[in-house]
Amino acid sequence: MALPGELWAELAAEQRIFCSVLLFSWAVYLWEAFLAHRQRRVYRTTTHVPQELGQIMDSETFEKSRLYQLDKSTFSFWSGLYSEVEGTMILLCGGIPFLWNLSGQISGGAGFGPEYEIVQSLVFLLLATLFSAVTGLPWSLYNTFVIEEKHGFNQQTLGFFFKDAIKKFVVTQCILLPVTSLLLYIIKIGGDYFFIYAWLFTLVVSLVLVTIYADYIAPLFDKFIPLPEGELKQQIETMAKSIDFPLTKVYVVEGSKRSSHSNAYFYGFFKNKRIVLFDTLLEDYSALNKEPAEGEDGENEDSKSKTKNKKQGCKNEEVLAVLGHELGHWKLGHTVKNIIISQMNSFLCFFLFAVLIGRKELFAAFGFYDTQPTLIGLMIIFQFIFSPYNEVLSFCLTVLSRRFEFQADAFAKELGKAKDLYSALIKLNKDNLGFPVSDWIFSMWHYSHPPLLERLQALKVAKQE
Question: Can you state the percent helix, strand and coil of the chain, rounding each to 5?
Fold first, then answer.
């Protein structure tokens, strides 16, 4: 009887590659399922507010957040299992070469023969993203209109949801297809050093997208309005000036039309920085805190308003503390460091792609025996061959992100915002129904932000002072 090692050695190179990809994919899934199981056990068993949280969270909010996170975790388990089974069946049944051949037939029917590989690649990309959107639609509907609705976060109507989904798909294609066609063309004509040109191209594209996103792309989905003149705007401008942050504009985005979750961020390069605040973050601006006008039923064709007993969002001082944290990321160079790490990783990946693209066994492993399309090579190498590296990198970036969050909190403390940030973190955790108790392995592997208790403990000394 042959040993497993002997059977493995007898397999052809492409068979070993295929089996390795499949086995690693399931190993990652089982690891994630194990971590999620540990965290769900925390949700199920931690039914009372721990003593150390007694001054932070009331029992009613604690129970609401526990049930919300338990529902999300259960949903994540089933959607993750479906995704893994779907991906496995696509690989086992030759779904990728089938879709490539179908793309060739469609492009050929339009008068573009096999020599027009870029055209066929774009058809393949369009079909692949359409398939992904359609198969993911039931899960997205359930998440939005069952889980988010059940726990009071969803503000969308069904019509708004579908209009938004179609708009997202169209905008994605308008960006993805031209960028991909140019990238493939650069790889084709780039010669031996194509990986340098490809990397430079993706760098420029990413910088352009970051620059134009909030001005031209995000407004297609949400309404952006300048923060009205007043005390809050003046305080934001004063704080920005005190740390030499080159602020040019402050926007409020109507996130409440979509969800009652809150957020804030800044964007822009050099001397042209803008701050974006979700209206759900601002107690005085959130539509969720406003009573419907007389004669209105609180619902229009795009969104619905739910009256809440408790006000959502933060007071002006707390908003300033949250922004002090966000501006800390800029002042401490976290944004630049993340860009450098991202681009170093991108360059390394393109270099390794250049090394591996000529290996025919990589294509044969996924059913491409007679042709080696560049787009398929990108998919195989970046998505499958690099998957172990991507997992390790993702964990390292998660650890680094937590370190950056502590540093940004410390920066806000130095601005004298410790007390307000302390109360803002509690309020935001309550508004978003964050569960403050975590399994340590799950937290270590997944949380890009430190757990609430750890952040509050770090702020506590300064708060008491």
Answer: 70, 5, 25
- Please report, for residues 68, 86, 119, 356, 368, the alpha-carbon distance to residue 364 in angstroms, rounded to integers and kept in the order given: 45, 21, 22, 13, 5
* Residue 282, phi then psi, degrees to nearest 5: -105, 115
DSSP of 126-157: HHHHHHHHHHHHHHHHHIIIIIIHHTT-B-B-
Contact 156, 261 (CB under 8 A): no
| Strand duo 273-278 + 264-267: pairing | antiparallel
Distance from CA of residue 280 to its chain's centroid? 19
Give the C-alpha separation, 218 to 224, whole Å: 8
Q: Which of 84, 149, 326, 391 is catalytic?
A: 326
Q: In which element (H, E) is residue 252 found?
A: strand 247-253
The distance of Cα 229 from the centroid of its chain, to the nearest Å, equals 32
Q: Is there a catalytic annotation at residue 326? A: yes
**DSSP letter string, 153-188:** -B-B-HHHHHHHHHHHHHHHHHHHHHHHHHHHHHHH
Q: The pTM is what?
A: 0.86
- Return the closest-CA partner of residue 455 out of 428, 445, 441: 428
pLDDT tens for the chain, 465 residues: list them.
Answer: 555 666 777 778 889 999 999 999 999 999 999 999 999 999 999 998 888 787 778 899 999 999 999 999 999 999 999 999 999 999 999 999 999 999 999 999 998 988 899 999 999 999 999 999 999 999 999 999 999 999 988 888 999 999 999 999 999 999 999 999 999 999 999 999 999 999 999 999 998 898 888 788 888 888 888 888 889 999 999 999 999 999 888 889 887 777 777 888 888 777 778 888 888 888 766 555 555 544 444 444 555 544 444 567 788 999 999 999 999 999 999 999 999 999 999 999 999 999 999 999 999 999 999 899 999 999 999 999 999 999 999 999 999 999 999 999 999 999 999 999 999 999 888 888 899 899 999 999 999 999 888 888 888 755 555
